[in-house]
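User: tokens in, sequence out, please.
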């Protein structure tokens, strides 16, 4: 047996950098979320400024919390634990620094471009194509550094945490690459390669599994390392961890379609999503139980140790969220919850409780250890725990209540069979709930500020250990095995096999769900009356996406009586074949717009003009922001032909002649809307420049008036042919 002891050092500098970044970006992301929440109570906080409207701020908040706060938290935990689990310094200090600074650069680019309205319009994947490429490169750097460390390890077996790190890396790479297929038009403008139903399926395969494999699996790996370390106890069950890992990564990937229940997605795909979502309860709770039972015999320590308090609440929140998620995928429950604030409550129980509290607990454990001192104030940390816990409760409970109230009001009919409430009634009714939600978010933010102050005092009192001395026996090339070895051990000794098997496990579900949707035409039957957007309508749609209108409005009418009575005929798969990207939305803060240009929903051009200038002028009590810049900014029709040519490449049937004459087509349709508005000029809320035919508001009106009109035209043609 090789007993040669090797001496080496762990790199704590990279852990420190990611810890600092997690804390700082956490405050930024939470502050953005608090402002967005307050905007739904006090619309004046949109400041009538393009970069601070809710539609642009919400993606900044979600990206900052997911990829900046949690992302840096992941790397902090992985870089600390991986070195110690592998008994080896990271493969390359230089790659570690490239990873750190590259990731921070991506975050800054994301904040700037999203504030400027440069977005793909796909939730949690809003960043444009150059940033997507940069994300891919930095993720590869992280992968090389991680696998290089694993390969040069001094520990033969891979501990369960490392399994989750490997699965995270390979799955996030797959999700990001597949969902980011887009066709560039300019440096910061592209169109999704997929359209309509197919785009929705790919997006929520990505969106759900971004939660699964960015917000969950790496944090489970971190949980498996830091809870035993903090409690000084072994993991409860090795066998349960095996079941937890393989069942979770295999089942999770199938669950994406449960975000699209009652939509135009084929029923078989919806059913698959529901079935696997229900199955997901078992491995999820297996992990929660494994984490909590690791603390068996240490509950007295939990009572006195603030780190373990944070971790226990985090794992409990994980269990709550992973029970509720499958329940929300039941069609009977989803019919109530979807598009409401119930989903917001569900998401934030996981985000604030699971990701937030586990990150806080790890920071409280790591900082004193790396700075070789005691936590500056245990009392302040305990205050943070209780204020943060209260913040989660005050945030979540009003949002659950708001969701139930929303759904009930949307669906209620009078005894005479008429809808009892206008959509705006629900908006005004919910403002007190939104105010309470803001209070909960404020408390959570205050707790995070207290933590930063506490950690800063700890850092000032300590001495940072940048290179931590360690020693371990060199990895023996051959090991004698005495007795029967568990079958899983051979996988743990082979990281490449672990990588390949993980990729196979996560790829199966996506392949089975997506390939039939793309290849079998019957899944998305075409509708003859559905035509491509005109040049001006396409420009208007791009403005709609830029302003983040999809964050508040859906374009998907479900086959419920309450929705067809309120909005019009339910949505069909063939309606969306030219939509790059799809715009079905996931939350209705405002009404659905799928039939905005048809029937009783159709409004005069002047109504839309005034509504965008001052929403309360047309809808008293509205919480929608004003959009004054649409009345001064001009449509860049010089680039419209590039957009049409890109759509041609994606299969939209524009003729070469139409593309060549794009600018003239824009001006021709704009003139029609301009003349319509000119007739009502005395009633328009005109800005300083007055009514101009080339302003962006004209293009946006063109798009809104187009919504749903193809189906209405198709019905008229059918009626005429029957006569």
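Assistant: Sequence out:
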């Amino acid at each position: 047996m090789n007993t040669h002891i090797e001496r080496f050092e762990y790199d704590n500098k990279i852990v420190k950098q990611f810890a600092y970044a997690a804390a700082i970006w956490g405050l930024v992301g939470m502050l953005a979320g608090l402002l967005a929440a307050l905007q739904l109570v006090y619309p004046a906080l949109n400041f009538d400024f393009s970069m601070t409207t809710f539609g642009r701020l919400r993606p900044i908040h979600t990206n900052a919390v997911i990829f900046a706060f949690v992302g840096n938290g992941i790397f902090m935990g992985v870089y600390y634990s991986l070195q110690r689990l592998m008994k080896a310094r990271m493969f390359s200090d230089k790659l570690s620094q490239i990873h750190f600074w590259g990731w921070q650069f991506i975050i800054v680019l994301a904040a700037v471009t999203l504030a400027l309205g440069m977005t793909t319009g796909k939730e949690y994947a809003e960043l444009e194509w150059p940033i997507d490429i940069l994300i891919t490169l930095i993720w590869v750097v992280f992968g090389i550094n991680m696998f290089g460390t694993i390969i040069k390890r001094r520990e033969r077996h891979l501990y369960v945490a490392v399994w989750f790190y490997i699965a995270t890396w390979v799955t996030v790479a797959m999700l990001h690459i597949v969902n980011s297929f887009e066709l560039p038009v300019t440096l910061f403008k592209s169109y999704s390669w997929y359209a309509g139903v197919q785009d929705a399926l790919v997006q929520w395969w990505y969106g759900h599994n971004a939660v699964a494999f960015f917000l969950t699996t790496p944090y489970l790996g971190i949980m498996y390392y830091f809870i035993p370390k903090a409690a000084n106890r072994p993991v409860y069950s090795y066998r349960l961890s095996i079941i937890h890992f393989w069942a979770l990564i295999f089942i999770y990937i199938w669950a994406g379609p449960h975000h699209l229940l009652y939509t135009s997605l084929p029923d078989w795909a919806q059913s698959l999503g529901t079935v696997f979502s229900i199955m997901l309860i078992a491995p999820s709770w297996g992990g929660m139980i494994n984490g909590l039972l690791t603390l068996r015999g240490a509950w007295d320590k939990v009572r006195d140790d603030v780190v373990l308090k944070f971790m226990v609440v985090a794992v409990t929140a994980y269990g709550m969220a992973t029970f509720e998620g499958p329940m929300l995928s039941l069609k009977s429950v989803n019919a109530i919850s979807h598009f409401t604030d119930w989903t917001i409550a569900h998401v934030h129980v996981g985000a604030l409780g699971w990701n937030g509290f586990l990150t806080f607990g790890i920071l409280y454990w790591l900082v004193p250890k790396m700075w070789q001192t005691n936590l500056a104030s245990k009392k302040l940390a305990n205050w943070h725990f209780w204020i943060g816990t209260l913040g989660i409760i005050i945030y979540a409970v009003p949002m659950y209540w708001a969701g139930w109230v929303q759904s009930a009001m949307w669906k209620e009919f009078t005894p005479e069979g008429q809808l009892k409430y206008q959509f705006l009634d629900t908006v005004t009714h919910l403002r007190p709930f939104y105010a309470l939600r803001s209070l909960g978010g404020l408390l959570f933010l205050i707790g995070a500020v207290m933590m930063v102050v506490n950690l800063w005092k700890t850092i000032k009192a300590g001495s940072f250990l940048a290179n931590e001395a360690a020693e371990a026996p060199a990895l023996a090339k051959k090991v004698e095995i005495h007795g029967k070895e568990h079958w899983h051990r051979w996988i743990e000794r082979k990281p490449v096999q672990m990588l390949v098997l993980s990729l196979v496990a996560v790829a199966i579900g996506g392949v089975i769900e997506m390939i039939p949707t793309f290849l079998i035409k019957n899944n998305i039957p075409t509708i003859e009356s559905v035509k491509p957007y005109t040049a001006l309508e396409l420009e208007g749609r791009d403005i709609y996406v830029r302003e983040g209108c999809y964050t508040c409005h859906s374009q998907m009418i479900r086959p419920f009586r309450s929705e067809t009575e309120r909005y019009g005929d339910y949505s069909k798969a063939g309606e969306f074949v030219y939509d790059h990207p799809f715009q079905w939305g996931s939350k209705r803060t405002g009404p659905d717009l799928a039939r905005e240009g048809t029937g009783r929903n159709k409004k005069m051009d002047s109504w839309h003009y005034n509504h965008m200038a001052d929403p309360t002028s047309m809808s008293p009590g509205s919480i929608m922001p004003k959009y004054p810049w649409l009345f001064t900014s001009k449509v860049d029709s010089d680039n419209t032909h590039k957009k049409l040519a890109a759509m041609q490449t994606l299969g939209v049937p524009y003729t070469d002649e139409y593309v060549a004459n794009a600018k003239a087509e824009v001006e021709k349709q704009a003139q029609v809307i301009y003349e319509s508005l000119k007739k009502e000029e005395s009633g328009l809320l005109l800005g300083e420049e007055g009514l101009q035919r080339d302003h962006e508001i004209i293009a946006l009106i063109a798009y809104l008036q187009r919504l749903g009109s193809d189906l209405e035209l198709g019905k008229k043609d059918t009626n005429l042919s029957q006569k």
